[in-house]
Amino acid sequence: PQLICPNWTITNKANSVPLKSADQDLFLETDEEFTLLVCPAGHVAPYQQFTLTIEPENGQILPLTRTVPFIITPYANLG
Questions:
Q1: What CA–CA distance (Å, rounded) separates 11 from 3?
Q2: Concatenated DSSP letters for the chain?
């Protein structure tokens, strides 16, 4: 998907339960998994840390801090 920065989008939806699939809404529900494409506001450098904050409407805020890998590629799983 084409993305204008800064922004994010859901690129894949799955369900962790065998033989089940995720529904098509934008709500992350029990047993669902989303893959996000995130485009930051500024440039990132190798080994730079950044934080992606998940803020549900009603729930606990989840900050995810990751480090940019040495080699930056179009796709990186930062687990």
A1: 11
A2: ---PSSEEEEEEEEESSTT----SSS---TTEEEEEEEE-SS---TT-EEEEEE--TTS--EEEEEE--SS--S-----
pTM above 0.90, yes or no: no
CA dihedral 35, 37, 41, 46 (to 10 degrees): 90
By percentage, how much of the chain surpasses pLDDT 70?
99
Q: Which tokens belong to 18?
A: 């065998």
String of DSSP letters for 1-14 = ---PSSEEEEEEEE
CB distance 40 to 5 below 8 Å: yes
